[in-house]
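Can anyone check this?
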Amino acid sequence: MAEKSRVLIVSRRTTRKNKFVDFVGEYHLDLIVASGAAPVIVPRVAGVDTLLDSFEPFHGVLLCEGEDVDPSHYSPTSSLTQEEFDDVRRAHVADTAVDREKDSIELGLAKLCLGRGVPFLGICRGSQVLNVASGGTLHQDISVEISRTRNPADGVKHIDYDNYDGHRHKITVVEGTPLHSWFKESLKEELELNVNSYHHQGVKRLAERFAPMAFSEDGLVEGFYDPEMYNPEEGKFVVGLQFHPERMRDLETDKFDYPGCPAVYHEFVKAVIAYQKKRNSSIKPNLGTQLYQEVEKNRRIFVNNFILAKHIYFARNQKPLSKEQDIEAAAEFLQLNSALSLQQEKRLKQMGATVRNGSSYMERLKMSEKKEKFARNLMEKMSIEQLSELVSLYHILGEICSEVLERKLMNSW
């Protein structure tokens, strides 16, 4: 069975029976699975931010709901007065309790994705994290900050606790954007959608790398993407949505408000799968780079082993090997990936070799054992496709080394 593409999703903390519990909304998980990928939950616990590479391989990241992002990540000073902040905290008790562990994990993942080109989908808080990770800023509270420049009567209700899942407000979609393509069949000439809304914060200054995809009537950015990093067929996808397409459903039938709602996840997973295929076709990224470097080191070790054997023989017998013996010895050494086997050591003795600097020789053997252990540990983490690529590379390198060595040996005698 082919290895499924892996999508990381960071959990959110809640309490149950006076104990902390981590959870992820099942709508997200269902859509990821239905689209053909495997969701992998990253626990929101202390220390995980230092272990992100341990979740390799992963081919996409989905960040969704959660508490407010700590304002210290995007602004040296608060944009709210103490009185305003106290009012906001009373109005949004569940959201204003900052979760620094979750911030650290998610900002780390967002920056990692942006740096490596890993597909990324940010929903609600996830879109805010994406913007902050890219140098953008947030409104600490939309109703307070936007009312300073607009008539409060023209404001948009971005959260309604009395009609939590049923509340909708209008957004205007920007033509020619991914959001426009996902919801195209549902859009009329006005290019408007009615979306859900569960937030009191939002994008204030959009990071330079992003382009807006939608605005609410109060001017708030409701969706954005990176034009340079959007092409699902090529494994490129960096998108942030302030609304929740996975929850835009009829409260009784559970039917989606628009066909475009699940399309968001389908296109994301399409990019995830394409990214995995592209990554598996090359051993350059991350783990592959280390392995490639190890292969290059081993190539040099192979050649050095042959030279060592040749020098040992010269030191004992003071006469050269025949061309056939020389090439045969080289072939044996070129098959090595680590320490010399007992048979090969015996072979050296049969050739009359005496190891004068034995301690140095044994150090070489110990180093080779360490290299073998390192290589084995790395290979245990590799997929079948990556191992197949590595075998092919070793085979090619072996052929090249044999040809070059044979030619050089022929020329040196």
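Reply from J.R.: I decoded it. Residues 310-317, 331-341, 351-358 have pLDDT under 50 and may be disordered.
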